[in-house]
Amino acid sequence: MDTLLQKYFRYDDRIELWVPDFADSWPTLDLDTQSEIASVWNSQRGEIPEKIRALETEIMQLIEKMYTDVNFETFCQLNTDMIDLAAIVNELNLWLRYIPSVTAYAGQGHTESMERAHF
Q1: 112 within some domain
Q2: What is the pLDDT of residue 113?
């Protein structure tokens, strides 16, 4: 699995998740490899809802601090932090919806079933 991760995924430090990075070679992969990659991605996708929940909790804590802190500079920093976390939530939601399909024509040069997986 580690080799599969390193070869077909990249670790995104910002969202703390291994994300697909294999679109260029997807159609040339055999069905077994495509299935293995899809399985690994489904495992990674499974972590996304919990990551989103944790970030939303953090956002709510920042909002609470914004209500209680009267210092303008602190308020602005909290708002910036909240916006950064919300952007990560948005990106995670995009990745959650990304589902590669295993092609019936894998390894035969057909390219119609895979979209580019870069944001």
Answers
A1: no
A2: 43
Domain count of the fold of the chain: 1
Residue 109 lies in a domain: no
Quick one: pLDDT band at residue 1, thresholds 50, 70, 90? low
**What pLDDT, on a 0 to 100 scale, did the predictor assign at position 110?**
43
CA 97 to the chain's CA centroid: 9
Report which secondary-structure segment, H or E, holds 103: none
Contacts of 104 (CB under 8 A, 6+ apart): none
Partner residues linked to 9 by β-bridges: 20
Q: Using the structure block, give the residue that is written with the tokens 């991605």.
A: 41
In-domain check, residue 117:
no
Of 26, 46, 50, 47, nearest to 36 by C-alpha is 26
Residue 59 lies in a domain: yes
CA–CA separation, 107 vs 10, rounded Å? 23
Which SS3 state, helix, strand or coil, does residue 92 take? helix
The mean-pLDDT minimum among 18-27, 59-68, 103-112 falls in 103-112
109: tokens are: 């040069």
Q: Which domain holds residue 25?
A: 2-96
